[in-house]
TrEMBL record:
Entry keyword set: Hydrolase
Glycoprotein found in the keyword field: no
Pfam families: Abhydrolase_1
Top-level taxon of origin: Bacteria
Coiled-coil regions listed: none
GO biological process, one term: proteolysis
Protein name: Proline iminopeptidase
Gene3D superfamilies, per the entry: alpha/beta hydrolase
GO cellular component: membrane
GO molecular function terms noted in the UniProt entry: aminopeptidase activity
Residues covered by the AB hydrolase-1 domain: 22-263
InterPro entries given in the database record: AB_hydrolase_1 (IPR000073), AB_hydrolase_fold (IPR029058), AB_hydrolase_sf (IPR050266), Peptidase_S33 (IPR002410)
Family listed: Belongs to the peptidase S33 family.
Naturally occurring in which organism (per UniProt): Micromonospora violae
Amino acid sequence: MVLGVRGDDGCRLWAEQAGVGPPLVLCHGGPGLWDYLAPVTRLLEDHARTIRWDQRGCGRSQRRGPYRVARFVADLDAVRDQLAGPRTALLGHSWGAHLALRYAIEHPERVSHLIYVSGTGIDPDRGWHPHYKRNLRLRLGPHLDRWEVLSARARTPAEDREWAVLQWSADFADPGTALRHADRMATPWRGINHDCGQAINAEVKEELRSSDLAGQCRALDLPVLIIDGTEDIRPRWAVDSLYRALPNSQRVSLAGAAHLPWVESPDDFRRAVTTFLRQ
């Protein structure tokens, strides 16, 4: 069921809910992308009432700023308030994992469970990023030259889609199916909001340097599940300090899966999430 949500500043946000059970709000990654978590909804439809949404400026939501982390946290609170109820579980993927973590830190009484999928941790020096860039180029293999050509120039909408599919293909472990999975993510193509992505990424980088996220995580007294794919090109040791800081957390690493573990290890992903939500 497609539903509309209004942010507290009137911004129109696209949302959809499906399934039965306790509420679970899903936060997609990016920043600057749109919701691609429908496969997660299908995996969990008998266990949770999932609520998916496009973040402001992205996909089917209103193309409107400001693109600030605090603004996205407020939008997530509007989604929670209008669709989920007073308390909900959260599942965030990649950048969405950081958004869900920030929301839980600011509103712990409104979160029952936090599921942190393929995030990049809280280390202020972002020491994982050089490893990511090297691994990205290695994983792109025969597509590297074309990706570099597209990366270096202003792109038409068709070229932007081609660039995204090539880059996203590196987020899957099996080169035989990677391009097909990435193309499915890009269909239908809703256009990347690069301004949003640049603004949010810059703010998160500064936030990690200037705030004590580790201390805030040590005070977060709610259950947290960290899910990683062992083949993610973002090194998973980047999340170690977050795992150590959280007082009530568990960690599941799915062998053979990469950045979108529900695609390459769906049964294990569903088992991990549903077991956690039943606790």
